[in-house]
Amino acid sequence: MANITIHESAVIDAPPTVVYGIVADYNEKHPVILPKPEFESIKVTKGGIGTGTEFDMTMIVMGQTTHSHVHVTEPEPGRVLVEADPKSGTVTTFTVEPVAGTEKTQLTFDTEMRASAGIKGLVERLLVPRVLRGLYKREFTNIQQYVKDNVLATA
What we know:
Number of strands: 7
Radius of gyration: 15 Å
Order of helices and strands: EHHEEEEEEH
Shape: globular
CATH superfamily: START domain
Strand order of the largest sheet: 1-7-6-5-4-3-2
Strand content: 35-45%
CATH architecture: 2-Layer Sandwich
Helix content: 25-40%
Distance between the termini: 50 Å
CATH class: Alpha Beta
Largest sheet: 7 strands, antiparallel
């Protein structure tokens, strides 16, 4: 069985601490930046900020509803945050890096997931990366809008 790998990155017009704070806050901020209607729900079941957080998530992508129980770790607090669903084997890594000489942030999403076997897996390998890249681009836009509405507006 082959893996599906998705890599998407964008520059966000905010300092890394602000961007990381948005991504790591599963109680309030992270749910707001998720693209709708695909991310139907997210419910924190443990923790809520960064490492140790667990949440249940429902996604509807390509007509398929997926329920996940996700565990969050921070291999490099303030820089790298990882969401992992042990059942499906899907892992998404968020990496936050400063853009040299600016108050901007390079935010990268890397997702690794298992593809199904056979024809279904072939279709997944062809379509899932395109769909998720589109979702990730919308999420970057949502983060930038959140910064504009909630961070820069109060600065």
